[in-house]
Amino acid sequence: MEYMVPDAELTAEQFMSRGENRWPGHTGVELTHVARDRFEGGFDVQDFHMAPNGFLHAGTVVTLADTLCGYACVANLPAGASGFTTVELKSNFMSTAREGRVTATALPVHMGKTTEVWDCEVTNANTGKRMALFRCTQMVLYPKG
Questions:
Q1: What is the domain count for the chain?
Q2: Please, which residues have CB within 8 angstroms of residue 108's CB and are 6 or more apart in sequence?
Q3: Does the pTM of the predicted model rise above 0.70?
Q4: How far apart are CA 86 and CA 63, in angstroms?
Q5: Residue 126 within a domain
Q6: pLDDT digits (tens, 9 = 90+) for 97-109
Q7: CATH assignment at residue 21
Q8: Could you tell me if residue 1 is inside a domain?
Q9: 63 near 24, Cβ under 8 Å?
Q10: Angstrom distances, CA of residue 77 to CA of 72, 113, 115
Q11: What is the 3-state secondary structure of 51-118?
C-alpha cells in the first residue's frame, strides 16, 4: 500500500513537529514509539495537567489518547487522501494520577478505505495501573472532484 506519509517521515521527531505550537505541544505530549501499527507516548504530570480538585484533568488523558490515535491515523492515510476528521470518540476512566508519568498505546481496530478505528489504553507508568480506555473513529477525507 502507498501512504500519504512516506516511510522516511514516519519518525517521532516528524510527528512531534506537527504538534509544535498546537495543542499537543502545549500539553507536553511526547512520542516514544511510531509505527503504522502502533503509536506510544506519554507526558510527565505537571501542575497545569491538574483539575481544580487536585486530580489529573480528564481532558489531559483524552488529549494524550486522541493525539496518539490522530497521529496514527495520519501515518496510515492512503496516498490520495487529503486528511481525516474525527467522527466519534469515547473514553472510560478507571483511575487517575497526581504525579509521575502517564503513558498510552494506540492500536488499530479497523483500517478501511473511508474509516479508521483506533483504541488507546492509558496507564499510570509509576503504578502500572490502567487509567483509561479510549476509542475513536476517523473518517478518511479525499479531495472532491
A1: 1
A2: 37, 72, 76, 116, 117, 118
A3: yes
A4: 13
A5: yes
A6: 999 999 999 999 9
A7: 3.10.129.10
A8: no
A9: yes
A10: 9, 9, 10
A11: CCCCCECHHHHHHHHHHHHHHHHHHCCECCCCEEEEEEEEEEECCCCCCCEEEEEEEEEEECCCEEEE
